[in-house]
């Protein structure tokens, strides 16, 4: 699972959606793999506006990434190639292959296997 | 004609094989009228997130992602597929990535600008439940729409549908999930429609396929009655049966 995807997902349990604690889900025991992808700065510039930056910082920290800027890059900063390359690597090239995602609100754990996260719930919660 | 993604790697013993309904999706999204509408809708937004619910073989999501320039007027869409069946999730990953690579090779030979559209992930999930409110720009849903006396149970994570060879019972169950729609063939579609207002972005749009027995006119009326400024219109049709189209695709969006 890509780090960017973690910015788009939350707990699958309906009652958790209203709680701010259900986003972002928290990575645990994550095994990472780097899958190279061509660097496309314009593509990244079109993705950044839709990112929830505070949550991305939480995720990056959990995955052991060196600190990313405190605020979302804007204006001139979007021409900083080194910054964009770092974000490209974090958001698009880093894959979580194994591990789990945990909801801070209900404690439910979603397993990630072979890079695919399983959001099916136990039958008593379906 | 835009190229149809290759699905020769997909195990059709557990995953829905592309059929008339899948191809109606491809034809509808790539029709001049629909593409023009989508290109206008997404002319100035950030990179759109395209989500196919119940992505199966991934043929529809692969088509939309690889041909994003023709369909959405931009080369930077992000794709996520969801399916209750892990085999479908794996198949979709392969289908969408291959379709995008094929498109990029084609562009490189003809020296066109390169498509950057990207397959993000497949998620094993019921409908679009793990997606954040307001996150989806384009939702695609080719549901299990056949009226059946019973609805197969919604999969839970108590069972595993891992890559090991599935039993005959598991195969039958997984395939039944691809078509069996319960009462009026609408039970799963109704559950999805309930989630649409929450999961769609303000400028988002959902495409949902219906068959004649689903009573498309009634479904449309019920959407128009949702709180807020909702619109619904039939934008794709195929096959005639007793004077009615057998299959239609309904476009659902907020008129903001």
Features:
heterodimer, A: 126 residues, alpha+beta, N-terminal domain of TfIIb, B: 256 residues, alpha/beta, Rossmann fold, seven-stranded mixed beta sheet, 8 helices
How far the N terminus sits from the C terminus of chain A, by CA atoms, comes to 24 Å
CATH topology of chain B: Rossmann fold
Q: What would you call the structural class of chain B?
A: alpha/beta
Low-confidence parts of chain A, pLDDT < 50 over ≥5 residues?
none
Name given to the CATH architecture of chain B = 3-Layer(aba) Sandwich
> How many helices of chain A does DSSP assign?
4
Radius of gyration of chain A: 15 Å
What would you call the shape of chain A? globular
In percent terms, what proportion of residues of chain B is strand? 15-25%
Structural class of chain A: alpha+beta
Distance between the termini of chain B: 32 Å
GO molecular function (chain B): nucleic acid binding; protein methyltransferase activity; S-adenosylmethionine-dependent methyltransferase activity
GO cellular component, one term (chain B): eRF1 methyltransferase complex
Keywords (chain B): Methyltransferase, S-adenosyl-L-methionine, Transferase
Family (chain B): Belongs to the eukaryotic/archaeal PrmC-related family.
Q: Briefly, what is this?
A:
The complex is a heterodimer of chains A (126) and B (256). With 126 residues, chain A is an alpha+beta fold.
Could you please describe the fold and organization of this structure?
The complex is a heterodimer of chains A (126) and B (256). Chain A has 126 residues and is α+β, with helices and mostly antiparallel strands. Chain A has a single domain, classed as Single Sheet (N-terminal domain of TfIIb). Chain A has helices at residues 3-6, 41-47, 53-62, 81-93; strands at 26-34, 94-102, 109-113, 116-118. In chain A, strands 1-2-3-4 form a four-stranded antiparallel beta sheet. In chain A, β2 and β3 form a beta hairpin. The two termini of chain A are 24 Å apart. Chain B has 256 residues and is α/β, with parallel strands linked by helices. Chain B has one domain: Vaccinia Virus protein VP39 (Rossmann fold). In chain B, strands 3-2-1-4-5-7-6 form a seven-stranded mixed beta sheet, with helices on both faces. In chain B, α5 (86-109) links the parallel β2 and β3. In chain B, α1 runs parallel beside α3 (59-66) and α3 runs parallel beside α5 (86-109). The radius of gyration of chain B is 17 Å and the shape is globular. The two termini of chain B are 32 Å apart. The model of chain B has no long low-confidence stretch (mean pLDDT 93).
């Amino acid at each position: 699972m890509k780090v960017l995807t973690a910015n788009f997902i939350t707990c699958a349990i309906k009652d958790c959606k209203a709680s701010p604690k259900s986003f972002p889900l928290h990575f645990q025991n994550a095994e990472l793999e780097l899958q190279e992808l061509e660097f496309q700065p314009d593509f990244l510039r079109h993705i950044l506006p839709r990112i929830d930056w505070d949550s991305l910082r939480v995720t990056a920290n959990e995955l052991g990434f060196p600190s990313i800027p405190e605020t979302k890059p804007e204006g001139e900063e979007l021409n900083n190639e080194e910054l964009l390359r770092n974000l490209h690597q974090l958001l698009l090239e880093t894959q979580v292959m194994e591990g789990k995602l945990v909801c801070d609100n209900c404690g439910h754990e979603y397993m990630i296997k072979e890079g695919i996260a399983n959001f099916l719930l136990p039958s008593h919660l379906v | 004609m835009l190229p149809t993604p290759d699905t020769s790697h997909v195990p059709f013993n557990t995953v829905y094989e592309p059929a008339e309904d899948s191809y109606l999706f491809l034809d509808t999204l790539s029709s001049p009228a629909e593409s023009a509408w989508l290109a206008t809708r997404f002319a100035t937004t950030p990179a759109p997130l395209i989500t196919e619910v119940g992505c199966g073989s991934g043929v529809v999501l692969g088509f939309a992602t690889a041909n994003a320039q023709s369909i959405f007027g931009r080369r930077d869409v992000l794709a996520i597929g969801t399916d209750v069946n892990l085999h479908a999730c794996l198949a979709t990953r392969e289908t969408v990535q291959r379709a995008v690579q094929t498109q990029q090779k084609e562009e490189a030979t003809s020296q066109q600008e390169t498509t950057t559209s990207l397959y993000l992930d497949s998620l094993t999930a019921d409908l679009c439940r793990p997606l954040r409110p307001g996150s989806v720009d384009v939702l695609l849903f080719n549901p299990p729409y056949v009226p059946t006396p019973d609805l197969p149970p919604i999969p839970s994570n108590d069972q595993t549908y891992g890559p090991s060879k599935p039993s005959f019972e598991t195969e039958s169950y997984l395939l039944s999930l691809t078509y069996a729609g319960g009462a009026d063939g609408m039970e799963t579609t109704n559950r999805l429609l309930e989630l649409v207002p929450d999961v769609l972005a303000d400028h988002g749009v959902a495409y949902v396929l219906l068959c004649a027995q689903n009573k498309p006119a009634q479904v449309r009326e019920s959407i128009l009655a949702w709180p807020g400024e909702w619109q619904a219109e039939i934008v794709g049709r195929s096959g005639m049966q007793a004077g009615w189209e057998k299959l239609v695709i309904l476009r659902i969006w907020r008129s903001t």
